[in-house]
């Protein structure tokens, strides 16, 4: 059975900053969120709705939709600012290494809250072949012991 995002009323009840979101925008961006969360449904379990709503809020914020500061800045094209100056006021956003490691999800607070949920479902060891080691014992890890003429 295919998963569908929570109703707009449920979403705006949990995330009131998006109370004025249009039906069309909610339908589209929640559909995009489902594309991310649905493959992880077995892992997310009871947190599936929360993950989908956080992804939806992330996408809406990036589009400048919502009443939060992040959304307002995105609407004005200033979401990725490094330094803003207006008169005597200067604001600079430091680069957060943790947020940078989250890729696109690190660009909003909603994405930063979602990222650990997604990572827990897709994390694991990454294995890559390195070839044979010079002066090694001749074992390459894949095909067994290498013949002497290859060493």
Task: Tell me what the structure shows.
This protein has 151 residues and is mainly alpha-helical. The chain has helices at residues 8-14, 23-37, 41-44, 48-62, 69-75, 97-101, 109-122, and strands at residues 83-86, 89-92. The chain has one domain (8-123). Helix content is 44%, strand content 5%. A two-stranded antiparallel ribbon has the order 1-2.
Total strands: 2
Q: Specify the helix fraction band.
A: 40-55%
**Which band does the percent of strand residues land in?**
5-15%
Mean pLDDT: 80
Widest β-sheet, arrangement of strands: 1-2
- H/E element sequence: HHHHHEEHH
Distance between the termini: 54 Å
Spans of at least 5 consecutive residues whose pLDDT stays below 50 are none
What Rg do the Cα atoms give? Answer: 22 Å
Number of helices: 7
Total domain count: 1
Taking the sheet with the most strands, its summary is: 2 strands, antiparallel
Derived structural class: mainly alpha
In short, what is this structure?
By secondary structure, the protein is mainly alpha-helical.
Keywords:
151 residues; DUF4054; mainly alpha; two-stranded antiparallel sheet; 2 strands; DUF4054 domain-containing protein
């Amino acid at each position: 059975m295919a998963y569908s995002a929570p109703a707009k009323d449920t979403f705006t009840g949990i995330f009131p900053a998006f109370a004025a979101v249009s039906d069309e925008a909610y339908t589209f961006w929640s559909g995009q969120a489902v594309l991310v969360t649905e493959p992880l449904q077995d892992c997310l379990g009871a947190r599936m709705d929360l993950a989908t709503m956080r992804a939806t809020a992330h996408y809406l914020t990036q589009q400048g939709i919502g009443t939060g500061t992040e959304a307002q800045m995105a609407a004005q094209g200033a979401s990725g600012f490094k330094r803003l100056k207006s008169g005597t006021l200067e604001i600079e956003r430091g680069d957060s290494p943790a947020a940078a490691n989250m890729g696109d999800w690190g660009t909003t607070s909603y994405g930063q809250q979602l990222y650990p949920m997604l990572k827990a479902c897709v994390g694991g060891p990454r294995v890559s072949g390195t070839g044979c080691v010079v002066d090694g014992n001749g074992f390459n890890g894949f095909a067994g012991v290498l013949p002497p003429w290859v060493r």
